[in-house]
Every structure is written in structure tokens, then in C-alpha cells.
Amino acid sequence: MSKPQLSVVVPVFNERDNVAPLVHEITAALRGVADFEIVYVDDHSRDDTLAVLSSLKDEVPELRVIHHVSQSGQSTAVRNGVRAARGQWIATLDGDGQNDPADIPKLLVERAGAAPEIKLFAGWRVNRQDSGSKRWASKWANAIRARMLRDDTPDTGCGIKLFERAAFLELPYFDHMHRYLPALMQRAGWKTVSVPVNHRPRSAGVSKYNNLNRALVGIADLRGVAWLIRRAKITRTEEI
């Protein structure tokens, strides 16, 4: 079996009503554009998300399904999806349908014209479709993160990203790492760019986060990532 050029990794937890519409949107956006696969990672959903995904495999040959036997969180789901992926480049989407798969070709175009040292193309939600409190909390968190990490990224929490698989797998792994990919990529010596993308209201299901739990874990994570950046040492090598 030949390897695809691109793997689209989608972590999900209790998103049964969003699975089928998003899978079909991904195939509509990418068929004829790139040789791709779709890797869904079900984080031990308590609804019938897994059953919906299993039934979709019969009609969507590009679809693969990974299942967590215990709930492990979004970062672990993303990492396990990337580890299972066969493509050299990875596109990620949140499973709630708020990211638009039609933006993936835009990221591919950005990559095609970019310098080889750019390993991450991060989505930037310029027109957020969340509640006012969620937008305010995100703006506050982004400002603090930018001040502490200096990652020059206006929207590190956007779920749609395109990155090189090998570069991602070299990054330090920890819970919630998916929120700090630009800073971690830069720590590893690579460059990143932000690309404006579409953002949509959630059409089904409920958010798995609230502003308080995001803030509580974010404080500890920020301190940890800042420590990692301070302790980083990059040495380029050459063979003679």
C-alpha cells in the first residue's frame, strides 16, 4: 500500500453528530487535491461516536479509526493519531466541526511556497464564532502566552494546523502540548507561520472545556513550557 502525502488527524470525544458531516467535508476538500488519509482518534467516547466512525469506514476508504481503551485527553489523541499516520505531513482539525476542512488546501498552498525550515503552518481564527466570554478568555490567555513564550503566534489554540510529522514526533510530549505547538517547534529550531482561516459555530454537541479549567491547566503549562524554552540547546551537526 502506497503512503499518502497527507494525513488528516481528528481527535474526538462524544462527537457522534459531528463525525459524519466533518468526514464528508474533509473528503470533499481533498479528493483531487492531495493523496490523503483521515485518521480519527476516539478518546474513549461515552456515546456512540465509535460506532458512527466504524460504519463510515465502509463508504469512506480514506478513513482509519484509532480507539483509546481509556480516556486520555486531546494531546494524547493527537499524538497517537500522528504516530499512526502514514503521511509525511499532518493536518489536524478539532472534532467539533468548528474548523473548516476547506482551509486545508490553503495551508498546503502556503507550504508549497514556504522555506524548508518552516515546519508548522498554524491556523489563525480571525473571526471567532464562540461566545463573548470564550473569546475574551482566549484573548487574555493568548496575550499572557505571547508575553511569556514570545512565540509570535496570535492564535495558538486554533485546532487546524499543518506540520511535518517527523518534526512533531521529536517534540517533548506532555498533556495539553497541542496548545503550544508553535513555541515547541520554535524551541526545536524550526520556524512557524500563522495563516488566517475560517471559524464556524458549533452545530451539534457541547464543548468539553470551560474557561475556568482552561485557565487552571494553562498557568501550570505556561510555566512548564517557559522552562523548556529556557533549557533548550540546539546544536547543528555536520558530517565530514
Automatic annotation (TrEMBL):
- Per its UniProt entry, which superkingdom is the organism in? Bacteria
Q: Which Gene3D superfamilies match?
A: Spore Coat Polysaccharide Biosynthesis Protein SpsA, Chain A
Q: Where is the Glycosyltransferase 2-like domain?
A: 7-168
Kindly give the Pfam families that the UniProt entry links to this protein.
Glycos_transf_2
InterPro entries recorded: Glyco_trans_2-like, Glycosyltransferase_2, Nucleotide-diphossugar_trans
Enzyme class, top EC level, equals transferase
Task: Give the EC number(s) listed in the UniProt record.
Answer: 2.4.1.83
One function term, GO molecular function aspect: dolichyl-phosphate beta-D-mannosyltransferase activity
- On whether Ubl conjugation is a keyword of this UniProt record, the answer is no
Keywords from the UniProt entry: Cell membrane, Glycosyltransferase, Lipopolysaccharide biosynthesis, Membrane, Transferase, Transmembrane, Transmembrane helix
The protein's name is Dolichol-phosphate mannosyltransferase
Species of origin: Lysobacter niastensis
